[in-house]
């Protein structure tokens, strides 16, 4: 099952851990997800191993062979506590089970025995191979080599669980085993149960939200009780924040299935936004909004601690296409914004083309729009994320309020419509 899931991800699907419905036994599920995660996080190093081990390259039309091989190399080299023997045995057995791969079971055995003999050397592969060159070089130029070295640490370690509280209650923080980050965000470093089994989840007293993702809604400055639009809203973390802030919220998204998830989240939390399924590039509101939060579709490269596959799924052409989409949605948002209204634009991307360059474009394209700079005092505990120009750029290397564990890479810019 781990091989089937990894194969789908290698083919371009979004990473989603195996669920209890798919693997009921918690031990099996934990092991399978650990193998998948390790294979994804170590993909750069595993690519080098495969290039050396398969002289003729990856066999064509070979079913799950590649996925099984990657899982087994991850286990052999990076998870020695599981045992080398099981890596070899289970790889051959899994290969034999797949009708499209079983003729390669002998090759699998031979390749993994060779890998086992070289496992100590493979374990010393440089960590900088974990990032594709296209991103590593760009990020070192934009953010510095030291920061990027800490990006790699975040990729290997993964992301802790960040939570936004509906009400700030020290007893709730203690019950969750959390540590305060900034504002109403806390971090749960370790847990022994699924998210929906944590204390007070069913009571709707908190929701999962990376600390960086919680920043944009806090920076919206619409008038008190005003009508605000949450564009590309699903699954609803920012919708919940805007509702908590007392705004009258309309949540819009083009994906009906994701909106169902948003509705379920709002019901659990006790919030009642207006929910609209529509295309954000063509939506026309009956009345303009006092504030708009645009969390634009993007490359999502800033989320690699939780979704390491994005590093290998994205390329320059993909990012260019997303920039055009971001500009289209932004232009429509400006038309739906009332004079004097607040517009917050954000992306969970580390790419300057999707962040700083969008600001430059917007200020040239819309003469009735002005930048509303963010002051460092608005983000106590994360002042270093505010640039000299009043933009917000969070990095996976940052420690909110000095707490280890990093955060997603995010970009936030705030505007005001002058007329």
DSSP, total strands:
12
Assign the CATH superfamily of the largest domain.
Answer: Vaccinia Virus protein VP39
- How does CATH name the architecture of the largest domain? 3-Layer(aba) Sandwich
Instruction: Outline the low-pLDDT stretches.
Output: none
Treating each run of at least 4 consecutive H or I residues as one helix, how many helices? 16
**Order of H and E elements:** HHHHHHHHHEHEEEHEHEHEEHHEHEEE
CATH class categorisation of the largest domain = Alpha Beta
- In this structure, how is the largest beta sheet organized? 8 strands, mixed
Shape: globular
**What gyration radius follows from the Cα positions, in whole Å?**
23 Å
Beta content comes to: 5-15%
Structural class: alpha/beta
CATH topology of the largest domain: Rossmann fold
List keywords for this structure.
419 residues, alpha/beta, N-utilizing Substance Protein B Homolog, Chain A, Alpha-Beta Plaits, Rossmann fold, 3 domains, 8-stranded mixed beta sheet, 4-stranded antiparallel beta sheet, 16 helices, globular, NusB-like_sf
Description:
S-adenosyl-L-methionine binds at residues 232-238, 253, 279, 295. The strands form 2 sheets. Strands 5, 6, 7, 8, 9, 10, 11 and 12 form an 8-stranded mixed sheet that branches. Strands 2-3-1-4 form a 4-stranded antiparallel sheet, with helices on one face. The longest helix has 20 residues, at 316-335. The radius of gyration is 23 Å and the shape is globular. It has 3 domains: 2-125, NusB-like (N-utilizing Substance Protein B Homolog, Chain A); 133-207, Alpha-Beta Plaits (2-Layer Sandwich); 211-417, Rossmann fold (3-Layer(aba) Sandwich), CATH 3.40.50.150. The protein is an alpha/beta fold. The mean pLDDT is 95. Helix content is 41%, strand content 15%. It contains 16 helices and 12 strands.
């Amino acid at each position: 099952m781990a091989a089937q899931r990894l194969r789908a991800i290698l083919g371009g699907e979004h990473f989603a851990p195996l669920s209890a419905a798919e693997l009921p036994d918690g031990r099996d599920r934990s092991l399978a997800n650990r193998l998948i995660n390790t294979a994804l996080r170590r993909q750069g190093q595993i690519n080098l191993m495969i290039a050396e081990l398969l002289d003729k390259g990856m066999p064509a039309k070979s079913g799950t062979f590649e996925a099984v091989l990657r899982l087994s190399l991850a286990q052999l080299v990076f998870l020695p506590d599981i045992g080398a023997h099981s890596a070899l045995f289970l790889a051959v057995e899994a290969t034999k089970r797949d009708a499209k791969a079983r003729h390669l079971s002998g090759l699998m055995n031979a390749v993994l025995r060779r890998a086992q003999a070289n496992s100590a050397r493979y374990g010393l592969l440089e960590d900088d191979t974990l990032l594709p060159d296209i991103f590593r070089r760009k990020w070192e130029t934009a953010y510095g080599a030291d920061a990027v070295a800490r990006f790699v640490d975040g990729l290997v370690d993964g992301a802790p669980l960040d939570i936004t509280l509906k009400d700030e209650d020290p007893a709730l923080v203690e019950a969750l085993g959390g540590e305060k980050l900034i504002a109403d965000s806390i971090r749960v470093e370790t847990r022994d149960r699924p998210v929906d089994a944590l204390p007070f989840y069913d009571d709707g007293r908190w929701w999962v939200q990376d600390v960086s993702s919680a920043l944009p809604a806090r920076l919206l400055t619409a008038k008190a009780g005003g009508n605000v639009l949450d564009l590309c809203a699903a699954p609803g973390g920012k919708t919940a924040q805007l509702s908590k802030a007392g705004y009258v919220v309309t949540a819009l998204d083009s994906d009906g299935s994701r909106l169902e998830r948003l509705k379920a989240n709002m019901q659990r939390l006790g919030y009642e936004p207006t929910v609209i399924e529509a295309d954000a590039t063509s939506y026309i509101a009956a009345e303009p909004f006092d504030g708009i939060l645009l969390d634009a579709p993007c490359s999502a490269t800033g989320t690699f601690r939780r979704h390491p596959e994005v590093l290998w799924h994205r390329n320059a052409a993909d990012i260019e296409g997303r920039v055009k989409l971001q500009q289209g949605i932004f232009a429509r948002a400006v038309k739906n914004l009332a004079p004097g209204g607040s517009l917050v634009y954000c992306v969970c991307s580390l790419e300057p083309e999707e962040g700083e360059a969008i600001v430059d474009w917007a200020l040239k394209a819309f003469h009735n729009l002005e930048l509303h700079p963010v002051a460092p005092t608005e983000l106590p505990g994360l002042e270093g994320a505010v640039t000299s120009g009043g933009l917000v750029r969070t990095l996976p290397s940052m420690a909110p309020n000095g707490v280890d564990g990093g955060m997603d890479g995010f970009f936030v810019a705030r505007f005001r419509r002058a007329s």
